[in-house]
Amino acid sequence: MGNLLGKEEPIDFNGEVDLHWFNLLRCVGKGAFGKVRIVERRDTKKIFALKYINKIQCIKMKAVHNILRERALLEELQHPFLVNLRYAFQDDENMFMVIDLMMGGDLRFHLDRTGGFTEAMIRYYAAELATVLSYMHKRRIVHRDLKPDNLLLDDRGHCHITDFNIASRFEENKVLKSHSGTLAYMAPEVFESNGYTWTVDWWSLGATLYECLYGRRPFHGSTNEELTVNIRSKHLDFPTYNLVTKQPLQVSKDCISFLQALLERDPKKRIGCTSGRGNLDDVMAHPWFAAVDFERLTRKEYQPPFVPDANHANFDAMYDLEELLLEENPLTHRPRK
After folding, report:
1. Whether this model's pTM surpasses 0.85
2. Is 51 labelled a binding residue?
3. Most exposed: 45, 181, 204, 334, by fewest CB within 10 Å?
4. How many other CB atoms are there within 10 angstroms of residue 313's CB atom?
5. Which residues contact 210 (CB under 8 A, 6 or more apart)?
6. What does the entry list as the binding residues for ATP (predicted)?
7. pLDDT for the residue 31
8. 213, HSE (Cβ side, Cα atoms, 13 Å)
């Protein structure tokens, strides 16, 4: 019998997880492969992010393999500086992934509003991200799309990697050869015929940190071909001012040294790669991190240098408005047929 008296059907929280477990709150993002909204688990009142993808749309975009691969990879990973997967399920229309909620916004959001970060901020993010890259690479997983858009801050200001849509497993004797990722952050070896593996993430980290400090990406081009040539061969400058705000920058020699070491075109000489896969010795030994205790860092015992404003939305509020006004088929709990 239907819900004639307006009472909700009881929820079995010991049974199979479904959308009915959660109260649906505001929409906070969308991308090529789906939408993200805040949800609250009804029994514990714990808040999460819900990423959901329409199955028909997924098939039309030929993205089924990517989505299933992302879920499989996330099920293998658990780290303090990842946006971790907590639940995964589906109904007849959508596939769902319930992940950690990051209320601090992504680095792109803050970069667009400030033009650039302080050296203290990028050193802190670099250290946190180095620990999680090492963890992933040790498990033979390469992200391939590290950039400010895919780095999320929690409410305390800690940095986390998200979006494993084009991440991949790899083997040392079976290299990757597809040009996957965002061109401006791709490592030079991606364009070589010999293929690549985990080393590309360290280059992308360098490109990301450079942009966060100077406000612009390290290499540019009016066409994809020109950008590719510049990534592979152009000399890299380290200006004395922010390229967006034009404000002068006091950047330490150690900071520039670390960025240069990440943006080393030979992956065998690139920092993060010289000590072997999953080994952070070369990074931890760099003088830029002399004051960092990486064990304390991983336990989140340090106070981040930037704490997002909890009184304002650290994301584009238009997502919520679009969901309210334009969504033809609003998300609701539907039992599978």
Report:
1. yes
2. yes
3. 45
4. 14
5. 217, 218, 259, 263
6. 51
7. 67
8. 27
